[in-house]
Design a protein that fits this description.
338 residues, mainly beta, 8-stranded mixed sheet, 5-stranded mixed sheet, 3 helices, 25 strands, KIB1-4_b-propeller, F-box protein
């Protein structure tokens, strides 16, 4: 029997009954026609639960830790050696940014193997280096804007020959996200957030210091693009490794201020060292909305604890432990796409 001729509706009906993304991917590997059919339609939501992206093995192949399965999945990359740096990035669309020698950059989808080349980074300042990249849309979209955070902020579109310097009043931007096609840039030492349209080059303060906010080494800040507004998550830390409390603020565009909230719009937040994402909890069995996933590092036992903070109940939970030798210190969350 020629399985390549199986009707697409039947194929997709079978694929959506898979319990894990790895099984879904193996179905697509049977033949070209099956892979093409599955690429057209996104995997069902329960197969797109965020993974932890880590490097593993001699050749530093991509590895993905599934919190739902508590299992590590290995996947070959199209590059034979590990880039010297993997930038913190917006990974809710399945893409990551990688840089070689602080010059050559590309966006890579480790699930589909797709690659989008970016202009080389040529800096006037010898000490300037790329720290984080964020993008406004699917990188294959010609209207996508990629922003690169260095000592200055650069931006480009796929296919551009060079980076442009963003005209902003901020001298240094350690964190940023795209929301509604505007780039929101955070100054963590004061909690101020500024929005700018990269094409117009005029920035506007959207919110200032949250009430009662004092930045220090006992806090970690995470900027997240929520479904209705940018969010700021403040993790209160003990000994820089243990989270003792979590607060969430959202931008009120009318009042131009941060407003404390107990609602994540029935979603979940996944907090990483370099990126953080919002993910819908609808139709996900065993997953509770208004919950926040994050990692705490145990320096004594050399393990990382994957924990949950339930925002409404103001309580903590523990999913499990991950060996520190497996987990990259600059881990990031990624939502699988094919």
């Amino acid at each position: 029997m020629d399985w390549s001729g199986l009707p697409e509706e039947i194929l997709f009906s079978i694929a959506t009954r898979m319990d894990h993304l790895s099984e879904y991917i193996r179905i697509g590997a049977v033949c070209k026609s099956w892979r093409s059919a599955l690429l057209v339609r996104a995997p069902p939501l329960h197969l797109r639960f965020p993974f932890l992206l880590v490097y593993y093995g001699m050749w530093h192949d991509n590895a993905f830790y599934s919190p739902l399965e508590r299992k590590l999945h290995h996947m070959k990359t199209p590059h034979r050696r590990r880039p010297k740096t993997r930038l913190g990035s917006s990974s809710s669309d399945g893409w990551v940014c990688k840089v070689h020698d602080n010059v050559n950059l590309h966006l890579h989808n480790p699930f589909s193997g797709a690659v989008v080349l970016l202009p080389p980074l040529i800096c006037d300042d010898y000490f300037e280096y790329a720290r984080k990249a964020v993008w406004s849309a699917e990188p294959t979209d010609p209207n996508c804007i990629i922003a690169l955070l260095c000592n200055r902020v650069y931006y480009c579109r796929p296919g551009d020959a060079r980076w442009k310097v963003l005209n902003t009043s901020l001298e240094f931007v350690p964190d940023a996200i795209f929301f509604n096609e505007n780039l929101y840039m955070l100054q963590p030492w004061c909690g101020r957030i500024v929005a700018i349209d990269p094409h117009q080059g005029r920035d506007m303060t959207m919110a200032t210091r949250p009430d009662g906010f004092l930045q220090g080494t006992d806090k970690l800040l995470h900027l997240v693009a929520g479904p209705s507004a940018p969010m700021l998550v403040v993790r209160h830390m003990k000994n820089e490794h243990e989270t003792t409390w979590v607060e969430v603020f959202r931008v009120d565009g009318t009042l131009k201020k941060w407003v404390k909230t107990k609602s994540l719009d029935e979603g979940m937040l996944f907090l990483g060292m370099d990126n953080s994402i919002w993910f819908s909890s609808s139709n996900l069995k065993g997953c509770k909305g208004n919950s926040i996933y994050f990692m705490d590092h145990d320096t004594y036992f050399l393990v990382d604890h994957l924990r949950i903070f339930y925002l409404e109940e103001e309580s903590f939970g523990v999913i499990g432990e991950i060996d520190t030798e497996i987990l990259d210190s600059s881990y990031e969350w990624i939502v699988p796409t094919l």
